[in-house]
Each structure stands twice: as structure tokens, then as C-alpha cells.
Amino acid sequence: MDKKFHGNFTQQDGLPEIAIERATRVLRSGRLHRYNLGKDEIGEVGSLELEFAKFINVKYCLAVASGGYTLSTALRALGVGHGDNVLTNAFTLAPVPGAIASVGATPIFVGVTENLVIDFDDLEAKSQNAKVLMLSHMRGHICDMDRLLSICASNNIQLIEDCAHTMGAKWGDRWSGTDGVIGCYSTQTYKHINSGEGGLLVTNNPDIMAKATMLSGSYMLYDRHPAGPEKKHYDLIKYETPNISGRMDHLRASILRPQLDDLMERVAKWNELYQILEEGLRATSGLTIVERPKSEKYVGSSFQFLLLDWSSEQIKRVVADCFSSGVELKWFGEASPHGFTSRYDSWKYVQTEPMAKTDRVLSGLLDLRLPLSFTKTDCTLIASIIKNVVQKLFETSNTSDI
């Protein structure tokens, strides 16, 4: 193939001018700390919390320093600690088991299906071992949330949703992050709204939000949280909850608010790019498309496909040949973690047992980002490069090699 892609898979689209203007205003004020406010001022952080809570129709929202911080705070707010087991997907990223380990708990990994969602049979089998499930909607793939909620209810499991990849997504008519007792979102650069680092924690439970607010480092200024619960919910915990500072500042909130206004427009653009790639790769010999269920209203900010039962050598060749044509693929089957890709057996602070079905999926899983700096023409070219490389190797390889 003589065509080569010259784009950058880590180049996000620029921030809107209104975000830059608001950031400049905050910088000129010198008031970056969330509690550095004048009388009766809500501030950028409080405004972001109110706007996000309204956006997904929840009662309470807390803005913090990172998506990973939302996860550990959610666990602490539910009373998870040393010696507890927490269920989570085997297909996830390091901050999820890291958050579980950070509170002294033990991650119990649950298998993944070829649709890249949690394996319900494995979840049922392991549900006796824990009372909390930290469900990662990994790479934006949402499982059948109705069935999941039924399993959780039957086994008295509290659900925390990791929505780092599903801000703006829905299952049916319900926003991702609103089915669990707590929803956790990231505003890291590669997520759907970008503040470099940042996170949003939501819940409809006033006692959980009160505890999360105290944990975030509110001192005794919890009354300055307009998207928080009434004062009475702090009375029993305010002297007993440790301050583990992780607040968001006004600078980050100021650039997030305009992006939240444009989120659904951005979702539509991502999905248009995703669907071009999906259609371009459909019917590629040896390649499995991850089909999306009708009830899932996803955000296609990244794309995954499977080369099931291919050898490691063949997949490495696919990655190398695509890279030589400018297409950067991440492979979740590598023996050692590489960049943002890692497997459940990579984290040596957790004892794990092999999971044959999950290992087969992860061994053939390839992933690429779809930043909004890409055009539709870019995605057509990317799909054609991948299709050409995969089909050529599939057709020229001996059946016994794949």
C-alpha cells in the first residue's frame, strides 16, 4: 500500500475560545482554590458541579482532582477498607485495581466476553466473595445494565460505575453513571471533556455525598458545595472523616464548563468517525468487529477489534505493519504492560488465576484512539490501512499459524 496516514493519535482537538477566556479570567483573579470565593459567590467549581448534576439528572456532584481519585473516594465513602474484596472487570486500566488496592481492599477480577463487557456467568460465580462491584465501562462498552442491576440486587452488591469512557453515553434512556450508587467520571486529556486531569463523582445518596465531600478536603466549608446535601448530613461525620485532599480548582472547572455545553455535539462527531471505521473494517477476513447492542448509546472516542486465535507473532506483525503506514494500534495481549495497555495479570500486587475465555479475548484485542482532530477522510484511510494489512496477513498465513 502506498498510502500512509500522517495524523497524530494523541493530538486532541483544541479547547474552545470561551474556555480560554474563562481560564484567563480565573488566572487574573488569582483565586484558583475552590474555597477562595467572595460572599455569596458559587465559583467555577460549584457551577460545574451544579451543571453536571443537572445534565445527567442526579442530586449531587463533587468535582475532584482526577478520575482515579473519584474511584478511591467512592470506595471510602462506602466504607470499603482493609481486608475487603471488590469485584471489577478483568478488562480495565490500572487506576481501577489501583484505587481498590489504595484503600487496602483486594480486587477480584471478573471475566470479559467477546463484546468486551463483564461476563455475567463469572460475576454470578464470584458474587459471594464481595459486596461491592466497581464496574469499568472499559473503552466505552456498556453491558446489559438491566441484567447487571438484577444480579447486584440478588446478591446485595453495591455498584460503583467507572464512567471514564462513557460520559455522555446511555443504556436505554439512562445516563451512564446513574444506575450505580455512585458514578465516577474522568476529565483527563484523553476523555470526553478535557482539563488535563480531573474527575466528577455523582450520587443520589446524601450521606454518601457528605462523606465524599469531607474526604475530598472540604475542611468545615461543606456549606459552599451548592450541588451537595443539606448540612444535617455532615453533622455525624464531620469530625470522624479524614481529609484526603483532592479538590478540583477553579482553573480546571472554568475550561470544563464550556466543553460540557458542547458534549453531545462532540459525541455525535465521535460516533460519526467510529461508524466510518466500523463500516470500513466490516467483512475483513480474520477480523472480528465488536458489535454494539441497540440499547447502548455509546461514545465512540476509541475503537477496538479482535483478531481471535491469531498467534502473538502474527498480531505483532499487524501492529508493526500498521505502524509503518502511520496507524498506531495498542495490543492488550502483550506479555508486559505498554503505555496505557495492561492486563489483569500485569498487576503483581494482586494474586490472580488464569481465565481462559478472558485470556483468549485479551490476547486478540487491538485498540486505537479516535481524537476529534481526525476527519472523516482520515478514518476512511485508517480503516483501509488496517483492512489491507489484516487481510494480507490472513490470506498469506498458513491456517495452522492463526
Describe this structure in words.
This protein has 402 residues and is an alpha/beta fold. It folds into two domains: 17-261, 3-Layer(aba) Sandwich (Aspartate Aminotransferase, domain 2); 263-401, Aspartate Aminotransferase, domain 1, CATH 3.90.1150.10. The chain is built from twelve helices and 14 strands. It has helices spanning 17-29, 43-56, 67-77, 95-102, 120-126, 145-154, 206-215, 250-261, 263-281, 312-324, 356-363, 376-396; strands spanning 60-64, 85-89, 106-110, 132-136, 158-162, 170-171, 174-175, 182-186, 199-203, 288-289, 296-297, 302-306, 330-331, 365-369. Strands 1-9-8-5-4-2-3 form a seven-stranded mixed sheet, sandwiched between helices. Helix 9 packs parallel to helix 12. The longest helix has 21 residues, at 376-396. It is globular and about 70 Å long. The protein starts with 16 loop residues before the first helix and ends in a 6-residue tail after the last helix. The relative contact order is 0.17. The mean pLDDT is 95.
Query: CATH top level of the largest domain?
Result: Alpha Beta
Task: Give the fraction of residues assigned to helices.
Answer: 25-40%
Alpha-beta content class: alpha/beta
Oligomer: single chain
Tell me the fraction of residues in β-strands, as a range. Answer: 5-15%
Low-pLDDT runs of 5+ residues are none
H/E series, N to C?
Answer: HHEHEHEHEHEEEEEHHHEEEHEHEH
Distance between the termini: 23 Å
